[in-house]
Amino acid sequence: MTDILTVHEVRINEEIDIVHVRQAARDLAVSVGFSLVEQTKLVTAASELARNTLVHGNGGRARIELGRALDGTPTLRLAFTDTGPGIADIDQALTDGYSSAGGLGLGLSGARRLADDFDLDTEPGKGTTVTVGFRARRPARG
Amino acid sequence: MSRTSVIELQDVLLVTIQGELTDRDAMALQEELTSSVASSSARGVLIDVSGLDIVDSFLARTLHDIAAASALLAADTVVVGMRPEVAITLVELGLTLPGLGTALTVADGMDKLNGSARPR
Ligand SMILES: Nc1ncnc2c1ncn2[C@@H]1O[C@H](COP(=O)(O)OP(=O)(O)OP(=O)(O)O)[C@@H](O)[C@H]1O
Ligand SMILES: [Mg+2]
């Protein structure tokens, strides 16, 4: 399991908040020594999921947990929660190219590929939480 | 927050994007650029993305749409300077940007638009 070291919350109510989520995710990833490729994957996944929270979930929040695995590896876990319409057909939503909104339909499935761990918790009419986890490949500094 | 500049070099529009782009910034760029292509009768659009530290699906779609609209206005689009970590991430995201011309540097991109690939 993972020890949680710090928790950050970013609200997602308007478009600029997508930028705020990206910046918070980037800053935390840099602070614990994620490589440039790892940072880029993480920030890109965060951008996709924050946009989904805003556009499909009618807004919500991102919770970013900085942790440490048993072997000392830094971990980042990002949970995006909304109280929007939920997702009726999870398999369909996770299919590459499916979009109910005229998008490319790659945000959710792509974020899943980019992450080391992925979890989707949703209930029609109640809301959605998408969680992605990332581990730094190289050992923490210091 | 983001700085985007468009300059006209002969009959090519050179676009430089830097910093954090909101979705609205991306859409504004698309509109502005497409109008510029029409009014300047440019033959090519060169988009320098070396200043971007991520390209997500929204921005990728915008780049794709810029190229499609420019093509209807008889201009080719070439994206240059993508960072390697951005390219790796885009592929994993599932975005390979088919149909979008690419080059490594602005000079290579200009050559590509002028139809004379520079020897490697
Ligand atoms: N938080 C959410 N709440 C409700 N529905 C969602 C949520 N996230 C995703 N979905 C559904 O899953 C579909 C697929 O999401 P995905 O991010 O892959 O594509 P998209 O957002 O439509 O397009 P894009 O490629 O631009 O991200 C969405 O079209 C939407 O129907
Ligand atoms: Mg999406």
Automatic annotation (TrEMBL), chain A:
<dbReference type="InterPro" id="IPR003594">
    <property type="entry name" value="HATPase_dom"/>
</dbReference>
<dbReference type="InterPro" id="IPR036890">
    <property type="entry name" value="HATPase_C_sf"/>
</dbReference>
<feature type="domain" description="Histidine kinase/HSP90-like ATPase">
    <location>
        <begin position="37"/>
        <end position="138"/>
    </location>
</feature>
<dbReference type="Pfam" id="PF02518">
    <property type="entry name" value="HATPase_c"/>
</dbReference>
<protein>
    <submittedName>
        <fullName>Anti-sigma regulatory factor</fullName>
    </submittedName>
</protein>
UniProtKB/TrEMBL annotation, chain B:
<protein>
    <submittedName>
        <fullName>STAS domain-containing protein</fullName>
    </submittedName>
</protein>
<dbReference type="InterPro" id="IPR036513">
    <property type="entry name" value="STAS_dom_sf"/>
</dbReference>
<dbReference type="InterPro" id="IPR051932">
    <property type="entry name" value="Bact_StressResp_Reg"/>
</dbReference>
<dbReference type="InterPro" id="IPR002645">
    <property type="entry name" value="STAS_dom"/>
</dbReference>
<dbReference type="Pfam" id="PF01740">
    <property type="entry name" value="STAS"/>
</dbReference>
<feature type="domain" description="STAS">
    <location>
        <begin position="2"/>
        <end position="113"/>
    </location>
</feature>
